[in-house]
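Hi both,

Apologies for the delay on this - the queue was longer than expected. I finally got the glutathione-bound model through. Below you'll find the protein sequence and the ligand SMILES exactly as submitted, and right after that the structure tokens for the full complex including the ligand.
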Amino acid sequence: MTHLKLWGRLSSINVQKVVWALDELHLRYERVDAGGAFGIVNTPEYRRMNPNGLVPVLEESDGFSLFESNAIIRYLVARHPGSTLLPADLRMRADAERWMDWQATTATPALRDVFWQLVRTKPEARDASVIAQSTGASAAMAHIIDARLADRPYLAGDSFSMGDIPLGCHVKRWLALPIERPSLPNLEAWFARISERPGARVVMAVPLS
Ligand SMILES: N[C@@H](CCC(=O)N[C@@H](CS)C(=O)NCC(=O)O)C(=O)O
């Protein structure tokens, strides 16, 4: 077994996802703060692993490295099979993967602006119309998640899977923002369910920053 090193600051949602997957799989790993104020991502050594200069990167001691958080999660769960994280049924697996892709391509762009405005922008520089637009867009995403969970405990069916991790991190961020939110009982019950998992403990304790 190679030594696993995860590059990335814990305040990054994309790093949080990978931490959650690693902890679910009970894997030992070293995490190195990188990105944001920690820098590192513009060094030639780091750019060789990720030419985008973004976090996270997973690096193994035999020289293999991977960027893109959801690809890292897919790799880890395929490398360590046997848990419900990687559904054996092909349709359930595609379902889990679909929610991972949806988080990255659809839910994240909806939430990004209100997060940046309220958490990473000084009050005097905030734009109320941007906040309102993104608050509404992210609520629409939450309604989709809530409807999906009306008749199943987890996004891909009866068991917790890798599909719950990216949106679990996304919803944690959405629920922590000081904004008005619709009441969504299915989403809230699912979030409480996944938050209790030992694998989620580290991620759930991270404050917004
Ligand atoms: N699609 C990429 C996005 C990676 C990304 O945007 N990472 C952000 C943090 S969430 C980043 O590296 N920002 C610059 C920095 O931290 O220096 C992934 O899922 O890994």
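Main takeaway for now: The longest strand covers residues 4-7.

I'll put the files on the shared drive as well.

H.
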